[in-house]
Amino acid sequence: MAVKIAxxxxxxxxxxxxxxxxxxxxxxxxxxxxxxxxxxxxVSESKLEVELLRDNKRILITINKDEYDDLGLEFSSxxxxxxxxxxxxCVFCFIDQMPPNMRDTLYFKDDxxxxxxxxxNYVTLTNLxxxxxxxxxxxxxxxxxxxxxxxxxxxVKMMNNRFAGEKLKYLKMLADAGISINCQIVLCPGxxxxxxxxxxxxxxxxxxxxxxxxxxxxxxxxxFRKNLxxxxxxxxxxxxxxxxxxxxxxxxFLEKYNTRLVFPSDEFFLTSKKDLPDNDYYEEYPQYENGxxxxxxxxxxxxxxxxxxKITHINNRNISIVTGKAAHKFLNFLIEKVTxxxxxVNCNVFAIKNDFFGQNITVAGLITGQDLVAQLKxxxxxxxxxxxxxxxxxxxxxxxxxYTITQVENELNIKIITVDNNGxxxxxKILGN
Length: 433
Known about the structure:
The protein is of the alpha/beta class. It folds into three domains: about 5-75, Roll (Pdz3 Domain), CATH 2.30.42.10; about 95-290, pyruvate-formate lyase- activating enzyme, CATH 3.80.30; about 300-430, Rossmann fold. About 30% of the residues lie in helices and about 20% in strands. The chain is built from 14 helices and 15 strands. It has helices at about 15, 35-40, 115-120, 130-140, 150-160, 170-175, 195-205, 235-255, 265-270, 295-310, 330-340, 370-375, 405-410, 425-430, and strands at about 5-10, 25-30, 30, 45-55, 55-65, 75, 120-125, 145, 180-185, 210-220, 260-265, 315-325, 345-350, 385-390, 415-420. Strands 1, 2, 3, 4, 5 and 6 form a six-stranded antiparallel beta sheet that branches. The radius of gyration is 25 Å and the shape is globular. The protein starts with a strand and ends with a helix. The model has no long low-confidence stretch (mean pLDDT about 90).
């Protein structure tokens, strides 16, 4: 496969070597270039022989540069190729539970190992073949894998893909080669919990240290589950049972490997009504992006920020902040710490029910603009409304339902500011710094 060069950065190594837009990049140092991973891996060397096709003629150009210096080539797409879509029909897939008539990008299921390495996306391995696995090993790429179960028959059932079970062999191949793997288990009551969860955790534990962390997250169920596999959400009892099994394996791993290795997401603690573990429990927070330890980290950062802030007086301030039902009690606790220190600050915390996706969905990241408008339009919001940045599509001001921040501001007649999941940022924006 070859890749067309879209443009060349002026005064770059490629420009000085007279490489041009519309040249076809065939190979670097004899290695064929088919996508961004090939390009990034082979262009890092200090001496390059770049093979091009120009006007149907092959050209070989030699370039000397410092190791890892950028060559200066630009391509029409980030991956230099199309994103690989998912071939599975997982019984728990949230995209299959989306309502109709939303923007097209919300319905795309990616399962691309390149995005796993570049952006931390999770892949199922079902798109891979032996050649793909050997390339990952050769390039020493870290990878994030959605495992869900190590029972091959159950994996086929859960993912509705007849190859899903046999593709587990790639997990062992990668582990045996020393590739660092973060694993994810979406836990579904009645399917892969109980003894099946213990089996999966034991099997993944056997692959330590290549399997460097495991996250267990509860299945999310929207109200749009029509004609799909019958699943039930976690309740207080079943969440406690799951935590007990996870804690059992954590104790074994601690004794054997000196790491807990497996971590439940915050939702399990909130649903079970158990206290959050302390900071040491999460070790190096290896599964932070999977919702593991987010609340503990925010809590500790926020309390540190309150303690460190030297301002003794704040002018009268009346604001509001929104969150999902799951984190409402926790956020109220943080606000109490503010009002104890700065008596002129009044901050109302509103828990937004997810009427759009259904009230089984309690996390802030899936709250829509229309739910904000419907539930806050008659509330006394004060001078400012703070919303978690996870409600908004990155790089835009769009909510999931394509409402914009400006639209919600106009309907509620209030200024909206987004807040990162960072205790210092939260305190600064509450105080108006």
